[in-house]
Specification:
The chain is an alpha+beta fold and 806 residues long. The chain folds into seven domains: 39-105, membrane protein fhac (Ubiquitin-like (UB roll), Roll), CATH 3.10.20.310; 108-182, membrane protein fhac (Ubiquitin-like (UB roll)); 188-273, Ubiquitin-like (UB roll) (Roll), CATH 3.10.20; 279-356, membrane protein fhac (Ubiquitin-like (UB roll), Roll), CATH 3.10.20.310; 361-432, Ubiquitin-like (UB roll) (Roll), CATH 3.10.20; 509-538 and 584-802, Beta Barrel (Porin); 549-581, no CATH class. The protein has 13 helices and 38 strands. The strands form nine sheets. The chain has a 16-stranded antiparallel sheet with strand order 18-19-20-21-22-23-24-27-28-29-30-33-34-36-37-38. The protein has a three-stranded mixed sheet with strand order 2-5-4, with helices on one face. It has a three-stranded mixed sheet with strand order 6-8-7, covered by helices on one side. The chain is globular and about 125 Å long.
Length: 806
């Protein structure tokens, strides 16, 4: 063997030895890693706990002695312990057969403090934050609370509010959590624009939605605050507005709110596609259920051929048909509308198909989100209950009723599968809103019993104690008048849809020819007969005092005047002398005698029927309001009469685009005594309340110029209201043009000296008005020129006061 061969063999041996050593080392290394990844744990050692028991940590780790633990298992331990929210840091390691769990406990929240909040109360913020006293402090939760507080401020129009959180150490490993709030200015809506609207102008659509542009009276408004939830609700309102006016293809393309951070104002742009306007084509009913006669259901149709298409009319027809077939014993019958568009004629033919629906029952009704409102207040709006046949139409009608209560910002009704295939769970999700109102109003009125400056303070709660009850307390103050009222209404008396309530009032007035003090109350009960027709019965009691306690002035010796009590002196003293020396008495012996006979008490029962199809009770544009009733006095007390009254108003939108509203209205009444003579103060006293252009008590029978009222009255009115040109509708002003006609006549005192005007004499006037939808209620200014009048009437061409449309 050569030297070279020997050297080569030596190198090969060294290389082989190295390979063997490396392989053995690698094997040892792999064995070590594998052992670390799956080592047997003999015990779990917990370190760093003070409040949390170590055994609790061991249980939460889910690691038991004798278990093989890998790196993945240790990661899971860390995840589990962090998820409890009890620890700010968790470290897991292994030493031999011991698994070491090292934790740093979260501090306990000692107190949650809000600083800098003036516009939002602490209670409102406490309701939205998750950080609470005596709970473990968690930084992530606190940061989420910061976002929740910002959201609250955004909803009240302060989108630029700045919120931060910090902690202050307290004793015993506790911490005070402080939320610092810089509220900033209110973020208002500077402008609302509509794109794509042709049938209706921007001004009309702005009246439809609830959001408003900031106007001159923005400091008194709350509707000019941008809120995304309110915008979504307004989108739905726009859809209904168009769907109910024939635009079945209407859709909202986009709604964009842009914030100008420099001005802190929003610019809102709503882009829409109106589509074509449709009318109803042929309207039919098709029943596939044996025993249901489609022809007998024709009277239930609210949709008529040739009328403008309306989704609301279709919904009303669905409810009518559903109730009608259910009343015939077909609880599972399902009514479905099928529309067929005729694009050439712009009509939609509607066929209501009655099928036998699936036999599904309501397992339960779950109510969620109601913190204040009691469950039963929500449940009673459903015409179905647990165990009844499920009917989607009646479920949706209940949703509409809940929305109409105005207790909730949003109402969502959905369904979920029940415990059995034929069982359905109805889920009602609500978001509550404020139902209390505190208002202070003021103004000046030139009509009614209380002319002059007026002010009113009232507190109203529509959902008293979450029971759905209505409570209102008010106090009114005028220059020479006071009035106080307490009203309460329970809308579901004895668990039925009966509205029971009472009213208590006190009136003090010294602004007319004589003082009036009136105290009384009413107990009432109202029941719906149909969706639009309501009946009411009531018991009424009042005590009235007229005049003062000075008595009648009578001439004394040397030209002196002696005041004596009422009685025979009334007839013995000249009326002119009474009127001259005692402002509390009048030039009318009839009125003076009635004053002397007071106080009076009236105990009566009354009933009325009200038919109401108005689209909006506060601001009607379409519909009919009719009311008629009688009051029968004589159930004790001093009065004995039958008073019959009736009134009606018909509203029609004369022009959709320019929002021109027409009104035709009228009223009439008669009072008749039984068992004796009619007291003069039981007469009707009328004036500008039936014919504008005349004073209060300005028309009708008089004695020596003093109103003694009449036994009969009637009036009719025609009016058109319209937006003012060149004036933003956001200010709430509208113009009006009107004409009134009426009369007050009839008196059993027509043979008395100085009595005139007891015959049927027509009064008429025409004029213009300005209506302002102020934050204190509708205020109206009228100028009316009397066209037909009598010489003894008292006119007043200009009037100013609070307004009522019907």
């Amino acid at each position: 063997m050569t030297a070279g061969s020997k050297l080569l063999n030596a190198l090969s041996a060294v290389a082989l030895s190295s390979t063997i050593l490396a392989a053995s080392t690698l094997a040892v290394s792999f064995g070590t890693v594998g052992s670390a990844q799956a080592a047997v744990v003999n015990r779990v050692e917990v370190r760093g706990t003070s409040r949390v028991d170590a055994e609790t940590v061991r249980n939460l780790s889910q690691i038991s002695p004798g278990q093989n633990v890998t790196a993945a298992d240790m990661d899971k331990v860390v995840t589990r312990l962090f998820a409890t929210g009890l620890f700010s840091d968790v470290r897991v390691s292994q030493s031999g057969g011991t698994l070491i769990v090292q934790v740093d406990e979260n501090q306990i929240v000692n107190e949650v403090i809000f600083q800098g909040n003036k516009k939002v109360k602490n209670e409102q913020l406490e309701a939205v934050v998750q950080t609470t006293p005596r709970a473990a402090y968690n930084a992530s939760t606190a940061q989420a609370d910061v976002d929740a507080i910002r959201a609250v401020y955004s909803r009240v129009g302060r989108s630029d509010a700045n919120v931060s959180v910090r902690t202050i150490q307290a004793e015993g490993n506790r911490v005070n959590v402080v939320f610092d709030v810089a509220e900033g200015d209110r973020t208002r809506i500077a402008q609302i624009n509509f794109v794509g609207n042709n049938a209706f102008g921007d001004s009309r659509l702005k009246e439809v939605i609830a959001l408003r542009q900031t106007g001159l009276l923005g400091f008194m408004q709350r509707s000019d605050i941008y809120d995304e939830d309110r915008l979504r609700a307004d989108e739905e309102t726009l859809r209904r507005f168009y769907y109910n006016r024939g635009f079945a293809d209407f859709r909202i393309v986009s709604s964009v709110a842009e914030l100008d951070e420099a001005k802190n104002e929003y610019y809102l742009t709503i882009t829409i596609e109106e589509g074509e306007r449709y009318s109803f084509g042929a309207v039919n009913i098709d029943s596939t259920v044996p025993g249901i006669d489609a022809a007998s259901l024709q009277n239930e149709l609210d949709t008529k051929t040739g009328a403008t298409y309306s989704a609301e009319k279709v919904e009303d027809t669905l409810v009518n048909l559903t109730n009608a077939v259910a009343a015939q014993g077909y609880a599972f019958a399902q009514v479905t509308p099928r529309g067929d568009r005729d694009f050439s004629n712009n009509t939609i033919a509607v066929e209501y198909v009655i099928d036998q629906g699936p036999r599904a029952y309501i397992e339960r009704i779950e109510v969620r989100g109601n913190n204040k409102t009691r469950d039963y207040v929500i449940r009673r709006e459903f015409d179905v209950s647990e165990g009844d046949a499920f009917n989607q139409v009646l479920i949706q009608r209940a949703r509409q009723r809940l929305e109409a209560l105005r207790f909730f910002q949003t109402v969502n009704v959905s369904t979920a599968p029940g415990s059995e295939p034929d069982r359905v769970i109805v889920v009602v999700q609500v978001v509550e809103q404020s139902t209390g109102e505190f208002s202070i109003g003021g103004g000046y009125t030139t009509g009614g019993e209380n002319p002059g400056p007026v002010a009113e303070i009232s507190i109203t709660e529509r959902n008293f104690l979450g029971r759905g009850q209505f409570v209102r307390v008010s106090a009114g103050f005028g220059e020479d008048a006071r009035n106080y009222t307490l009203s309460f209404t329970e809308p579901y008396f004895l668990g039925r849809r009966l509205a029971a309530g009472f009213d208590i009032y006190r009136v003090e007035n010294s602004s007319s020819d004589y003082d009036i003090e009136r105290t009384g109350g009413t107990l009432r009960l109202a029941a719906p007969i149909t969706e639009n027709l309501t009946a009411q019965i009531a018991y009424n009691y009042k005590e009235e005092r007229f005049g003062d306690d000075y008595g009648v002035p009578v001439p004394g010796p040397g030209g002196s005047v002696a005041y004596r009590t009422c009685g025979d002196f009334i007839s013995a003293t000249p009326a002119s002398f009474i009127g001259q020396y005692s402002p509390m008495y009048t030039n009318s012996p009839i009125i003076n005698q009635a004053i002397c006979d007071s106080p009076y008490s009236t105990s009566s029962a009354s009933y009325s029927l009200t038919y109401n199809t108005l689209d909006n009770n506060n601001d009607p544009r379409d519909g009919l309001f009719l009311q008629a009733g009688q009051e029968i006095a004589g159930l004790g007390g001093d009065a004995q009469f039958v008073r019959t009254t009736g009134k009606g108003s018909f509203f029609s939108l004369l022009n959709e685009e320019y929002d021109v509203i027409g009104l035709l209205g009228g009223s009439a009444g008669n009072v008749t005594a039984f068992g004796g003579d009619l007291r003069v103060f039981d007469n009707f006293f009328k004036g500008q309340d039936i014919v504008r252009g005349f004073k209060y008590q300005g028309i009708g029978p008089r004695q020596n110029g003093v109103s003694i009222g009449g036994e009969n009255f009637f009036n009719a009115t025609a009016e058109v209201t319209f937006p003012l040109p060149l004036v933003s509708r956001d200010l709430g002003f509208r113009g009006a043009a009107f004409a009134d006609v009426g009369s007050l006549w009839g008196s059993e005192y027509d043979d008395q000296p100085g009595v005139e005007g007891t015959g049927f004499d027509i009064r008429a006037s025409a004029g213009v008005g300005l209506v302002w939808a102020s934050p204190f209620g509708p205020i109206r200014v009228n100028y009316a020129y009397p066209i037909a009048k009598e010489d003894f009437d008292r006119t007043q061409e200009f009037s100013f006061g609070f307004s009522s449309r019907f």
